[in-house]
Design goal:
This protein is mainly α and 275 residues long. The protein has eleven helices and no strands.
Protein backbone atom coordinates (compact mmCIF):
# COMPACT_ATOMS: atom_id res chain seq x y z
CA UNK A 1 0.00 0.00 0.00
CA UNK A 2 1.35 3.42 -0.94
CA UNK A 3 1.44 6.49 1.29
CA UNK A 4 -1.09 8.24 -0.99
CA UNK A 5 -3.51 5.31 -0.73
CA UNK A 6 -3.13 5.23 3.05
CA UNK A 7 -3.70 8.99 3.27
CA UNK A 8 -6.83 8.84 1.11
CA UNK A 9 -8.27 5.95 3.12
CA UNK A 10 -7.43 7.70 6.40
CA UNK A 11 -9.21 10.87 5.31
CA UNK A 12 -12.21 8.83 4.13
CA UNK A 13 -12.37 7.01 7.46
CA UNK A 14 -12.18 10.26 9.40
CA UNK A 15 -14.93 11.83 7.30
CA UNK A 16 -17.35 8.91 7.22
CA UNK A 17 -16.97 6.98 10.50
CA UNK A 18 -18.54 9.72 12.60
CA UNK A 19 -21.14 10.91 10.11
CA UNK A 20 -24.18 8.65 9.57
CA UNK A 21 -23.03 7.65 6.06
CA UNK A 22 -21.10 4.39 6.72
CA UNK A 23 -17.31 4.31 6.75
CA UNK A 24 -17.27 0.59 5.86
CA UNK A 25 -19.22 1.36 2.68
CA UNK A 26 -16.78 4.09 1.63
CA UNK A 27 -13.70 2.04 2.53
CA UNK A 28 -14.98 -0.77 0.31
CA UNK A 29 -16.37 1.34 -2.53
CA UNK A 30 -13.53 3.85 -3.05
CA UNK A 31 -10.76 1.24 -3.65
CA UNK A 32 -13.20 -0.57 -5.98
CA UNK A 33 -13.95 2.59 -7.97
CA UNK A 34 -10.23 3.42 -8.22
CA UNK A 35 -9.41 -0.19 -9.25
CA UNK A 36 -7.11 -0.68 -6.26
CA UNK A 37 -8.89 -3.96 -5.62
CA UNK A 38 -7.22 -5.34 -8.78
CA UNK A 39 -3.88 -5.22 -6.92
CA UNK A 40 -3.39 -8.42 -4.81
CA UNK A 41 -0.75 -6.73 -2.63
CA UNK A 42 -3.09 -3.85 -1.78
CA UNK A 43 -5.96 -6.22 -0.97
CA UNK A 44 -3.74 -8.41 1.20
CA UNK A 45 -2.67 -5.45 3.32
CA UNK A 46 -6.05 -3.71 3.35
CA UNK A 47 -7.93 -6.90 4.25
CA UNK A 48 -5.63 -7.43 7.18
CA UNK A 49 -5.43 -5.07 10.14
CA UNK A 50 -5.35 -1.79 8.19
CA UNK A 51 -9.13 -1.32 8.34
CA UNK A 52 -9.05 -1.70 12.13
CA UNK A 53 -6.05 0.65 12.28
CA UNK A 54 -8.13 3.34 10.57
CA UNK A 55 -10.84 2.81 13.20
CA UNK A 56 -8.11 3.17 15.83
CA UNK A 57 -7.48 6.70 14.52
CA UNK A 58 -11.13 7.75 14.79
CA UNK A 59 -11.39 5.98 18.15
CA UNK A 60 -8.64 8.26 19.48
CA UNK A 61 -10.49 11.26 18.03
CA UNK A 62 -13.74 10.32 19.81
CA UNK A 63 -11.92 9.49 23.05
CA UNK A 64 -10.10 12.84 22.98
CA UNK A 65 -13.24 14.85 22.18
CA UNK A 66 -15.23 13.17 24.96
CA UNK A 67 -12.25 12.74 27.31
CA UNK A 68 -13.75 14.81 30.14
CA UNK A 69 -17.08 13.01 29.75
CA UNK A 70 -15.40 9.62 30.05
CA UNK A 71 -13.44 10.64 33.16
CA UNK A 72 -16.67 11.77 34.82
CA UNK A 73 -18.55 8.66 33.65
CA UNK A 74 -15.91 6.21 34.90
CA UNK A 75 -15.55 7.97 38.25
CA UNK A 76 -19.32 8.17 38.73
CA UNK A 77 -19.76 4.54 37.66
CA UNK A 78 -17.22 3.47 40.26
CA UNK A 79 -18.84 5.58 42.97
CA UNK A 80 -22.27 4.15 42.13
CA UNK A 81 -21.05 0.66 43.00
CA UNK A 82 -18.65 1.43 45.83
CA UNK A 83 -20.22 4.46 47.50
CA UNK A 84 -23.82 3.89 46.35
CA UNK A 85 -23.94 7.40 44.88
CA UNK A 86 -26.84 7.95 42.47
CA UNK A 87 -25.87 10.40 39.74
CA UNK A 88 -26.80 10.83 36.09
CA UNK A 89 -23.21 10.08 35.06
CA UNK A 90 -23.08 6.92 37.17
CA UNK A 91 -26.34 5.72 35.66
CA UNK A 92 -25.16 6.47 32.11
CA UNK A 93 -21.87 4.63 32.64
CA UNK A 94 -23.61 1.39 33.58
CA UNK A 95 -26.21 1.83 30.85
CA UNK A 96 -23.36 1.97 28.33
CA UNK A 97 -21.77 -1.15 29.84
CA UNK A 98 -25.05 -3.09 29.82
CA UNK A 99 -25.83 -2.00 26.27
CA UNK A 100 -22.37 -2.95 24.97
CA UNK A 101 -22.39 -6.60 26.14
CA UNK A 102 -25.34 -7.88 24.05
CA UNK A 103 -24.22 -5.70 21.15
CA UNK A 104 -20.79 -7.33 21.15
CA UNK A 105 -22.18 -10.87 21.25
CA UNK A 106 -24.76 -10.18 18.54
CA UNK A 107 -22.15 -8.49 16.33
CA UNK A 108 -20.00 -11.64 16.37
CA UNK A 109 -22.97 -13.81 15.39
CA UNK A 110 -24.17 -11.48 12.62
CA UNK A 111 -20.63 -11.07 11.30
CA UNK A 112 -20.37 -14.84 10.76
CA UNK A 113 -23.75 -14.86 8.99
CA UNK A 114 -22.71 -11.92 6.82
CA UNK A 115 -19.44 -13.62 5.84
CA UNK A 116 -21.25 -16.84 4.91
CA UNK A 117 -23.73 -14.93 2.71
CA UNK A 118 -21.29 -12.60 0.94
CA UNK A 119 -18.14 -14.71 0.88
CA UNK A 120 -15.82 -13.60 -1.95
CA UNK A 121 -18.66 -12.32 -4.14
CA UNK A 122 -17.47 -8.72 -4.55
CA UNK A 123 -20.32 -7.66 -6.84
CA UNK A 124 -22.86 -8.98 -4.30
CA UNK A 125 -21.07 -7.05 -1.54
CA UNK A 126 -21.21 -3.81 -3.55
CA UNK A 127 -24.89 -4.40 -4.29
CA UNK A 128 -25.69 -4.98 -0.61
CA UNK A 129 -23.74 -1.84 0.34
CA UNK A 130 -25.71 0.24 -2.20
CA UNK A 131 -28.99 -1.27 -0.98
CA UNK A 132 -28.12 -0.60 2.69
CA UNK A 133 -27.09 2.99 1.92
CA UNK A 134 -30.38 3.74 0.19
CA UNK A 135 -32.71 1.96 2.64
CA UNK A 136 -31.04 3.34 5.77
CA UNK A 137 -30.92 6.79 4.17
CA UNK A 138 -34.68 6.75 3.59
CA UNK A 139 -35.37 5.40 7.09
CA UNK A 140 -33.08 8.01 8.68
CA UNK A 141 -34.82 10.85 6.83
CA UNK A 142 -38.34 9.67 7.74
CA UNK A 143 -37.54 8.93 11.39
CA UNK A 144 -35.63 12.17 11.92
CA UNK A 145 -38.40 14.26 10.37
CA UNK A 146 -41.23 12.69 12.40
CA UNK A 147 -39.45 12.16 15.74
CA UNK A 148 -40.11 14.46 18.68
CA UNK A 149 -37.27 16.02 20.67
CA UNK A 150 -38.67 14.70 23.94
CA UNK A 151 -35.62 13.25 25.69
CA UNK A 152 -32.17 14.72 26.35
CA UNK A 153 -28.96 12.79 27.01
CA UNK A 154 -29.51 12.71 30.77
CA UNK A 155 -33.06 11.35 30.29
CA UNK A 156 -31.99 8.19 28.43
CA UNK A 157 -33.14 5.06 30.27
CA UNK A 158 -31.91 1.44 30.32
CA UNK A 159 -34.40 0.19 27.72
CA UNK A 160 -33.42 2.93 25.28
CA UNK A 161 -29.71 2.27 25.91
CA UNK A 162 -30.00 -1.46 25.20
CA UNK A 163 -32.07 -0.93 22.04
CA UNK A 164 -29.58 1.61 20.70
CA UNK A 165 -26.67 -0.63 21.71
CA UNK A 166 -28.05 -3.74 20.02
CA UNK A 167 -28.70 -1.80 16.82
CA UNK A 168 -25.00 -1.08 16.31
CA UNK A 169 -24.37 -4.83 15.99
CA UNK A 170 -26.26 -4.78 12.68
CA UNK A 171 -23.92 -2.12 11.33
CA UNK A 172 -20.85 -3.99 12.53
CA UNK A 173 -21.86 -7.03 10.46
CA UNK A 174 -23.29 -5.42 7.31
CA UNK A 175 -21.29 -2.70 5.48
CA UNK A 176 -23.38 0.20 4.29
CA UNK A 177 -25.66 0.34 7.32
CA UNK A 178 -23.40 2.65 9.40
CA UNK A 179 -22.90 2.28 13.13
CA UNK A 180 -23.50 5.95 13.85
CA UNK A 181 -26.32 6.02 11.30
CA UNK A 182 -28.35 3.19 12.80
CA UNK A 183 -27.73 4.14 16.45
CA UNK A 184 -28.74 7.75 15.79
CA UNK A 185 -31.79 6.59 13.84
CA UNK A 186 -32.92 4.31 16.66
CA UNK A 187 -32.25 7.05 19.20
CA UNK A 188 -34.36 9.51 17.18
CA UNK A 189 -37.16 6.93 16.92
CA UNK A 190 -37.09 6.80 20.73
CA UNK A 191 -37.66 10.59 20.77
CA UNK A 192 -34.12 11.52 21.82
CA UNK A 193 -33.00 14.90 20.47
CA UNK A 194 -30.37 14.98 17.71
CA UNK A 195 -27.41 16.27 19.72
CA UNK A 196 -28.06 13.81 22.55
CA UNK A 197 -28.51 10.97 20.05
CA UNK A 198 -25.11 11.75 18.52
CA UNK A 199 -23.35 12.06 21.88
CA UNK A 200 -24.76 8.78 23.20
CA UNK A 201 -23.98 7.07 19.89
CA UNK A 202 -20.32 8.12 20.06
CA UNK A 203 -19.95 7.16 23.72
CA UNK A 204 -21.59 3.81 23.04
CA UNK A 205 -19.33 3.06 20.08
CA UNK A 206 -16.13 3.63 22.08
CA UNK A 207 -16.00 0.31 24.02
CA UNK A 208 -16.92 -1.95 21.09
CA UNK A 209 -14.46 -0.27 18.68
CA UNK A 210 -11.77 -0.37 21.39
CA UNK A 211 -12.39 -4.11 21.78
CA UNK A 212 -11.97 -4.64 18.02
CA UNK A 213 -8.70 -2.67 18.09
CA UNK A 214 -7.35 -4.71 21.01
CA UNK A 215 -8.18 -8.01 19.27
CA UNK A 216 -6.16 -7.02 16.18
CA UNK A 217 -3.45 -5.06 18.01
CA UNK A 218 -0.83 -7.78 17.58
CA UNK A 219 -1.29 -7.67 13.79
CA UNK A 220 -0.74 -3.91 13.47
CA UNK A 221 2.11 -3.03 11.11
CA UNK A 222 3.74 -0.67 13.59
CA UNK A 223 6.88 -0.23 11.47
CA UNK A 224 4.94 0.68 8.33
CA UNK A 225 4.82 4.36 7.30
CA UNK A 226 1.49 3.95 5.41
CA UNK A 227 0.01 2.41 8.57
CA UNK A 228 0.81 5.50 10.65
CA UNK A 229 -0.25 7.84 7.82
CA UNK A 230 -3.66 6.14 7.82
CA UNK A 231 -4.02 6.26 11.60
CA UNK A 232 -2.90 9.88 11.90
CA UNK A 233 -5.02 11.20 9.02
CA UNK A 234 -8.15 9.39 10.28
CA UNK A 235 -7.50 10.84 13.75
CA UNK A 236 -7.07 14.45 12.60
CA UNK A 237 -10.02 14.42 10.20
CA UNK A 238 -12.15 12.51 12.72
CA UNK A 239 -11.49 15.11 15.40
CA UNK A 240 -12.59 17.90 13.05
CA UNK A 241 -15.70 15.99 11.94
CA UNK A 242 -16.94 15.09 15.43
CA UNK A 243 -16.65 18.75 16.46
CA UNK A 244 -18.50 19.81 13.31
CA UNK A 245 -21.30 17.27 13.77
CA UNK A 246 -21.93 18.09 17.44
CA UNK A 247 -22.16 21.80 16.58
CA UNK A 248 -24.25 21.18 13.45
CA UNK A 249 -26.86 19.04 15.21
CA UNK A 250 -27.69 21.81 17.69
CA UNK A 251 -29.82 23.30 14.91
CA UNK A 252 -29.44 21.09 11.82
CA UNK A 253 -31.10 17.80 10.88
CA UNK A 254 -29.94 14.48 9.41
CA UNK A 255 -31.67 15.20 6.08
CA UNK A 256 -28.50 16.13 4.18
CA UNK A 257 -26.79 12.88 5.22
CA UNK A 258 -29.85 10.84 4.23
CA UNK A 259 -29.90 12.44 0.77
CA UNK A 260 -26.17 11.78 0.33
CA UNK A 261 -26.64 8.10 1.24
CA UNK A 262 -29.40 7.63 -1.34
CA UNK A 263 -27.42 9.37 -4.10
CA UNK A 264 -24.28 7.33 -3.35
CA UNK A 265 -26.27 4.10 -3.31
CA UNK A 266 -27.80 4.88 -6.71
CA UNK A 267 -24.36 5.74 -8.13
CA UNK A 268 -22.94 2.41 -6.90
CA UNK A 269 -25.80 0.51 -8.55
CA UNK A 270 -25.05 2.46 -11.71
CA UNK A 271 -21.35 1.49 -11.67
CA UNK A 272 -22.26 -2.16 -11.02
CA UNK A 273 -24.56 -2.12 -14.04
CA UNK A 274 -21.99 -0.43 -16.31
CA UNK A 275 -19.13 -2.72 -15.29
Amino acid sequence: MTIIQALILGVIQGLTELLPVSSSAHLNVVPWLLNWTENPEFMAEFSGSFDVALHFGTLIAIAMFFFKDWIVLIKAGFNKVVKKEDTVEGKMFWYIVLATIPAGVLALVLDKISESIIGDNFKLEMGLIAFALIVMGIILAIVDKKAENKHKYEDINLKQSVLIGISQAIAAAFPGVSRSGITMTVARSLKIDRESAAKFSFLLSTPIVAAAVLVDLAEFALTSIPFWIGVFSSFIVGLIVVKFLMDYLKKGSFKIFAIYRVILGILIFGVIFIR
